[in-house]
Predict the structure of DUF5132 domain-containing protein.
Amino acid sequence: MPPVVPPFLIGLIAASLVKRVGKPLVRGLVKTSVSLGVEVKRAVQEAGEGIQDLAAEATAEVLTARTAQGAGHGVGAPKDGTAGRDGAGAGSAPPAQEAHGGQTGGQDKPVGKARSAGSIAAKSR
């Protein structure tokens, strides 16, 4: 019959082996996972910056397109803001109307100011 080895001796031998082999293995695993996490953070940051750059370029293109369209529509328009209005006439306003801020025919809004885009329900209140 083989000699019986007490379990605590097996535990002592296994613990020392695990300590010698396991410690460098776990250390390498932790270093690898930390460096991988840093690389992922860096890649995400670069991707975010790329998206912000694309958004800025798209915004700039839209603004230049709108500016170009606005400049194209304003060519040849009078500077007093009466272009495109029905019944505005080809000449300037009479002197009596110029004294009142250029408003004609009972208009309540100043020239060049956009109308509000409120809902019909809000306007009826």
User: Anything to note?
Assistant: The helical segments are 7-73, 95-99, 120-124. The chain has a mean pLDDT of 74. The two ends are 104 Å apart (CA to CA). Residues 77 and 83 are 6 Å apart (CA to CA).
